[in-house]
Amino acid sequence: MSLFGDGLDAAVQKAFTRPAPKSAPTQMRYLVKQLKSTKAVAQMLRISQRTVERYVKDQIKKPRPDLAARLEREVKKRWQPQIRAKARQTAATTGGIVIDTRARLGYTAPIGSTDQDRIRHLTVALPPRYAARLFDAQQAGASEQQLREIAAEALKEVYFQDSGRRAGSLEEVRFTDIEHLEFDL
């Protein structure tokens, strides 16, 4: 579970036009339809093929909590791919992305400045180019640290440097001890 990856996914899921299936049998039928076989669904969810068939036929209705979580995660990962792509494209080209975080932020600057790390709660609208970089990095399988660095660079430019109007000699922003992180499109 990655904080940045899950946060970006949650932001995109807010763009869904229809709710994802809620009950286990409908979720299972959806996955079987997507993957074209009960065997593939069974392997993905790490359960038997017969169990998948029972869910599809409504013979089992209530999954174990761990299976329910895996099932919901896999359905949401595949739900409305065109809407998901359109939301990412809009954020990356025109809309940008809003980051709401409570974390320890500090920076490296010339001697004499007050660059002490401290907990800050920020809600900042990031320009579309940073939304594009975040989504592209996520699609390419970037690590949590790489996504954090992109977000730190965006906060450096937008929050600390105010798009070039101040703190021009700021070198690096440290983005650590994240207590809360949420993205919105």
Textual characterization of the structure:
The protein is an alpha+beta fold and 185 residues long. The longest helix is centred in the C-terminal third of the chain and has 17 residues, at 144-160. It is built from 8 helices and 3 strands, in the order ααααααββααβ. It starts with a helix and ends with a strand. The relative contact order is 0.17.
Outline:
The chain has 185 residues and is α+β, with helices and mostly antiparallel strands. It is built from 8 helices and 3 strands; from the N terminus they run ααααααββααβ.
Write the layout of secondary structure elements.
Elements: H1 3-13, H2 24-35, H3 38-45, H4 49-56, H5 65-78, H6 81-95, E1 97-108, E2 118-126, H7 128-139, H8 144-160, E3 172-184
Antiparallel strand pairs: 1-2, 1-3
Helix pairs in contact: 2-5, 3-4, 6-7, 7-8
